[in-house]
Design brief:
Largest sheet of chain B: 4 strands, mixed
CATH architecture of the largest domain in chain A: Orthogonal Bundle
Number of helices of chain A: 11
Order of helices and strands of chain B: HHHHHHEEEEEEEEHHHHHHH
Oligomer: heterodimer
Radius of gyration of chain A: 20 Å
Distance between the termini of chain B: 17 Å
CATH superfamily of the largest domain in chain B: Butyryl-CoA Dehydrogenase, subunit A, domain 3
CATH topology of the largest domain in chain B: Butyryl-CoA Dehydrogenase, subunit A, domain 3
Number of strands of chain B: 8
Helix content of chain B: 40-55%
Structural class of chain B: alpha+beta
CATH class of the largest domain in chain A: Mainly Alpha
Largest sheet of chain A: 5 strands, mixed
Largest interface: A-B, 59 and 59 residues
Order of helices and strands of chain A: HHHHHEEEEEHEEHHHHH
Number of helices of chain B: 13
Chain lengths: 331, 378
């Protein structure tokens, strides 16, 4: 990890930890806007993180952004900063000035749509910026706001360049959800290890039992797999642009979705009854994991695309195609 | 735990092209069974041909027959060999662990005597670890070497030693001094470079469930070893034998063992489509690509001189799960009546081989124990 990335990750981690922790997740689930945290995130310039410097942004790489989204996921993503980063990136690429405040991204139900200052509507390679119109509140099983928002007055319209392509919003959202899943899985694995070392049965910590150790070790493998898949996807975006990173992003979302299923099941098994009580912090993360599997394309959606492409290319091309996508070092 | 993806080495694409041309020619007559056996296939002629191309001992100094290329270039070669299902068994162990161990710990004489032969594809190695009473609990091994004038006298028995009956040398881990009173059982072990032609060595192949003879029982009966058959430091055998585990456990041979069945399965499905098959294929391809990233990350760390032992254990465990499930997934997608003979034979071969994937090189249970310890459990 580069030094810049480490510093950013640390800053955002601290900001999120100081911003309210699990208590904040509870208030967000109750419908409140995390105003303090949002102000802190904007103060760091994170909303403009993926906007190029020459357009007045921070000009982070997608690799840096994905690392930040993992931190966000570790804290349960209580604010739509990742979606705002993506929305701003799309607007800026389409030559539209990025507005202030949280951006509602209309790629599926709008995350935190009721709190959005503006609405970004991707439609193929066209991107339009609107005032927010009528809001019909909704939520996913993470009890995160997922609202239906009608576009209000159109403020601007632009075209995405080829490097982003007509599926940029979907691809970006899939990468965001995969990265959030990576972070949340990391968090619940740590919680489960801590619990396994604390909770005693039969006169010893349950983490001393091989049956428990083996489950958590297998989960650690899944957590690592998602992290690598997300890293590979973000690198592919940096190297080739969103439009040409569909394979890696799809891989990341497939692996993330599968790992979310396995990881959530594992930690609940380790925590047993206490983990499914409302007072326990675990469910704020596991419910989000189950929700994030569904957003930005399910495992089935992306696997269908990857599998169809692989089959169309035939068995003899599978390995050459995989290796041909390697990031090239300097000769 | 940390995984950082490396860039591909310079001129990797060119190297891959050379390998694919070579493998297309060399592999014209490989049977489906050969491809299914992957690195459990033993073919000395093939290994010599690979050696002539400079693809064994790639990272070693030229003075020892090596080619002074990077570890990541070496991984390119391994990947292409495995993706093609090449019978690389005759040089695999020498290239992967015996050679590197000799290079790092051997005397100058040992290096000059052995390494050029491995690099040429002439010398085959086997790994003398398991014993009747020492499987996962390796430190329980009983084979011992006692000091005699001018050298050592070796007695005991190794078992499950893959390709001992076809190999030239074994690197054996044996006890050279008793377990100290109340001390660690890992102390007092040493490694020896054992020429398998020495008198007093009897090698009995053990027929496996596929009807093949690939692993063996090796008995040492007063085998006389020279002073300079000791490899590395007397008493440091445990640390030496485990120091290479990150190399042994993280490579592409830990997730690609059944890859040829995926490629063949895709072709079979194209000829006789199964509705919804693309979802399963897509999930497998996503896993394959991700495991490759994990394996390459560890390769990159090793290249930088780091010691990612836990990451390597994790790659092996996750890779074994994948390579064991792959033939079953393909099998579940294709009706036997629609399965071409080539694929049917490959899947039959893999069904009989796959149980070993999560045994060889450290069982699933041992690997997960290592990971659990790193997590802070145990």
């Amino acid at each position: 990890m580069s030094e810049l990335r480490s510093i950013l990750v640390e800053q955002v981690d601290r900001l999120m930890a100081d911003g309210g922790g699990v208590a904040l997740l509870r208030t967000v689930e109750a419908g409140e806007w995390p105003a303090g945290l949002w102000a802190g995130l904007e103060e760091q310039g994170l909303n403009l993180a993926l906007v190029p410097e020459e357009a007045g942004g921070v000009g982070l790489s997608w690799g840096d952004a994905a690392a930040l989204w993992q931190v966000l996921g570790r804290h349960g993503a209580p604010a739509p900063i990742a979606e705002t980063m993506l929305g701003a990136a799309l607007l800026s690429a389409a030559g539209i000035e990025v507005p202030e405040g949280p951006i509602g991204l209309a790629q599926g139900p709008v995350p935190f749509g009721r709190h959005a200052a503006r609405l970004v509507v991707p439609k193929g390679a066209a991107v339009t910026l609107h005032a927010t119109g009528q809001v019909t509140p909704g939520e996913n099983i993470g009890r995160e706001p997922r609202d239906a928002v009608t576009p209000g007055d159109r403020i601007a319209r632009g075209e995405l360049p080829n490097a982003l392509g007509p599926r940029a919003a979907l691809l970006g959202l899939a990468l965001i959800r995969a990265a959030l899943i990576a972070g949340a899985l990391e968090r619940i694995l740590a919680l489960a290890v801590d619990w396994a070392n604390t909770r005693k049965q039969f006169g010893r910590a349950i983490g001393k039992f091989q049956a428990v150790q083996q489950q958590l070790a297998a989960m650690a493998g899944e957590v690592a797999a998602v992290q690598v898949a997300v890293q590979a996807a973000a690198r592919a975006v940096d190297a080739r642009g969103l439009a040409e990173a569909g394979f890696e992003i799809g891989c990341a979302k497939v692996v993330a979705g599968e790992a979310a299923t396995m990881g959530a099941a594992t930690v609940h098994q380790v925590f047993a009854a206490i983990g499914i009580t409302e007072d326990h912090e675990l469910h704020h993360f596991t419910r989000r994991l189950w929700a994030w599997r569904e957003e930005g394309g399910t495992e089935r959606f992306w696997a269908t695309e990857i599998g169809r492409d692989a089959m169309a290319r035939g068995g003899a091309n599978l390995w050459p195609d995989i290796t041909a996508r390697d990031a090239q070092g300097a000769d | 735990m940390r995984f950082d993806l490396p860039d591909a080495p310079p001129r990797a694409a060119e190297l891959r092209r050379e390998l694919r041309d070579f493998l297309a020619e060399a592999g014209r007559d490989w049977t489906p069974e050969t491809r299914a056996r992957s690195w459990m296939g033993f073919d000395r002629d093939f290994s010599r041909a690979v050696g002539r191309r400079g693809w064994i001992g790639m990272t070693w100094p030229a003075a020892y027959g090596g080619h002074e290329r990077s570890g990541l270039e070496r991984i390119v070669v391994l990947e292409e060999m495995l993706a093609a299902g090449a019978p690389v068994g005759a040089h695999w162990i020498g290239d992967r662990q015996s050679g590197p161990l000799i290079l790092r710990l051997g005397t100058e004489e040992q290096r000059r005597r052995i390494l050029p032969g491995i690099a040429a594809g002439e010398l085959a190695f086997c790994i003398g670890l398991s014993e009747p009473e020492a499987g996962s609990d390796l430190a329980n091994l009983r084979t011992k070497a006692e000091r005699v004038p001018g050298g050592w006298k070796l007695n005991g028995r190794k078992i499950w030693t893959t390709f001992a009956h076809k190999s030239d040398y074994m690197i054996a881990l044996v006890r050279t001094s008793p377990v100290p009173e109340g001390g660690a059982r890992h102390a007092g072990l040493s490694q020896f470079l054992v020429d398998l032609r020495l008198s007093g060595i009897s090698i009995r192949p053990i027929r496996d469930l596929a009807g093949e003879e690939s692993f063996n029982e090796v008995t040492f009966d007063d085998v006389v070893l020279r002073e300079d058959d000791l490899l590395g430091q007397e008493g440091a055998g445990w640390a030496q034998a485990t120091s290479e585990l990150a190399f042994e456990r993280s490579g592409p041979d830990r997730y690609l063992s059944s890859y040829p069945a995926l490629a063949a399965g895709i072709d079979a499905l194209n000829a006789a489509p199964t509705p919804g098959a693309e979802v399963t294929i897509g999930r497998m391809v996503a896993r394959l690509n991700t495991l490759r990233g994990m394996s390459l990350s560890v390769g990159g760390m090793l290249e930088r001189g780091e010691s990612p032992a836990v990451e390597a254990a994790l790659v092996k465990d996750a890779g074994n799960v994948f390579e064991q499930a792959l033939p079953e997934q393909i099998r579940n997608l294709i009706d036997p009546a629609d399965s071409p003979q080539e694929l049917t034979r490959m899947l039959a071969g893999l069904a009989q081989l796959a149980p070993t994937f999560s045994l060889r090189g450290g069982t699933r249970e041992i690997l997960r124990g290592i990971i659990a310890r790193d997590l802070g459990l145990r």
